Description:
The complex is a heterodimer.
Chain A: H1 2-5, H2 7-14, H3 26-37, H4 42-52, H5 56-65, E1 77-82, H6 85-88, H7 92-103, E2 116-121, E3 133-137, E4 140-144, H8 149-165
Parallel strand pairs in A: 1-2
Antiparallel strand pairs in A: 1-3, 3-4
Helix pairs in contact in A: 3-4, 4-5
Chain B: H1 18-23, H2 28-36, H3 39-49, H4 61-66, E1 76-81, H5 90-97, H6 99-113, E2 117-122, H7 127-142, E3 158-163, H8 173-180, E4 204-208, H9 209-213, H10 215-221, H11 223-227, E5 237-244, E6 250-255, H12 260-267, E7 277-285, E8 290-291, H13 294-297, H14 305-308, E9 317-322, H15 327-341, H16 347-364, H17 372-383, H18 390-414
Parallel strand pairs in B: 1-2, 1-4, 2-3, 5-9
Antiparallel strand pairs in B: 5-6, 7-8, 7-9
Helix pairs in contact in B: 2-6, 2-10, 3-6, 5-6, 15-16, 15-18, 16-17, 16-18, 17-18
Amino acid sequence: xxxxxxxxxxxxxxxxxxxxxxxxxxxxxxxxxxxxxxxxxxxxxxxxxxxxxxxxxxxxxxxxxxxxxxxxxxxxxxxxxxxxxxxxxxxxxxxxxxxxxxxxxxxxxxxxxxxxxxxxxxxxxxxxxxxxxxxxxxxxxxxxxxxxxxxxxxxxxxxxxxxxxx
Amino acid sequence: xxxxxxxxxxxxxxxxxxxxxxxxxxxxxxxxxxxxxxxxxxxxxxxxxxxxxxxxxxxxxxxxxxxxxxxxxxxxxxxxxxxxxxxxxxxxxxxxxxxxxxxxxxxxxxxxxxxxxxxxxxxxxxxxxxxxxxxxxxxxxxxxxxxxxxxxxxxxxxxxxxxxxxxxxxxxxxxxxxxxxxxxxxxxxxxxxxxxxxxxxxxxxxxxxxxxxxxxxxxxxxxxxxxxxxxxxxxxxxxxxxxxxxxxxxxxxxxxxxxxxxxxxxxxxxxxxxxxxxxxxxxxxxxxxxxxxxxxxxxxxxxxxxxxxxxxxxxxxxxxxxxxxxxxxxxxxxxxxxxxxxxxxxxxxxxxxxxxxxxxxxxxxxxxxxxxxxxxxxxxxxxxxxxxxxxxxxxxxxxxxxxxxxxxxxxxxxxxxx
Lengths: 166, 418
């Protein structure tokens, strides 16, 4: 349970808001749940709702609304390539396609070893450094810019190695 | 401008360290207003400087602050760091490179609004950046620049960082507030405006990151100095995010009134690979496409001049398209964005972007019929003026202008010649 494992972090989150407005802590708590479980399951939604004293439907609706929250498990790492207009003008669509081909998956799919899911996303505010992507990892979200197939595959190899070492 | 006013890290690389920022007059403006100035005087200075909101609307910040309902407390300040407009990447550079000037701006705004709590609503993708900002806020507490009884006065201020979770609509200020409160990030009916009933139903100021970053120099150097930069009605420096088919994409801090031509061909190094320029999206995906005529290229980039040639300056994210770009494809890309980001609250936007997307998709795939062009235009005009917020209104602008100026690009995909 999150409350048993992260009492201090939960307190720190709740203290940011007036006590009668603690529903404002929904997104931070959902991030905590996703970090812990890899995705936001129905169980996790009930846990978060319990901390906030709200109905689980009030929490669950948010998971579908926001793109960074995932209701279903995916790869351990999600490589989310921006293919919006400014990035597309600088070769992002071709980059995304090559990356998927190289990993032998289709856009949105996960590699057989469960390590990497590749997804297309909308503008990430890195338009001048395209092709670029964000890596949604268990420990947070990190940007990788001015990418090509080689640099992306190097990163993936490093992530694979990290998994083997652990 | 010889030196940067906002992107100061380009002149002083270590300015993201608090000690370095303090050595360069950091937090002098905040200390000055807290110890020597009444909040009303700060608001007057910002009004006189005519600081206009840099998030896209260009509304005067000081005027916005003066709408706060008198006598109602607590009040809140929310910094809008939900930078998500395609082609816009200026707030991110400010917060990464010159974070303390932004934080000082938040502090000055909070004092002027008589708020003791401020939140920075950062888009969730800026995860690393948000955590760095939290460290910087911690450093300010340690230095006695945030917290209780600041500068031996009764004023106290806390700043918190709040992460969004991936939704463009949360850049709209009332959707942002709903999102902060733990609800779906959908816009609210206005009035009441946030200045009357904002965060937690209390008087609230919401301002963009770049807007707030202008405050320390305005306080330090005065409204008259500020008004000497830019044009008469669009005052001060502006960060233009330049992307697309240029040699040197990036952020350029220039005075309002700089022409498209100067930005694209002098600062941006011209069009990549020796190609010709075809069009300009001056405000990301959210304003009409402009054909790159001499008249357009010589237009000053300010809030008054860009509408005269048929578009908007918005957040000043200039996406440059070269001669190889198919405008039907461009319309498909911008429409894909809006279809994905429509929050679903109102039918014209939710359904309209869906149908525009499907028509453009079949045109793209070579399955469009000649009458699809007029159908697309009719759907777009059916959305116009009927949406709950600006997102739906924005969504049609690149498409309608695209058909108007480059109809042959659409005809090539739908006509007999396909």
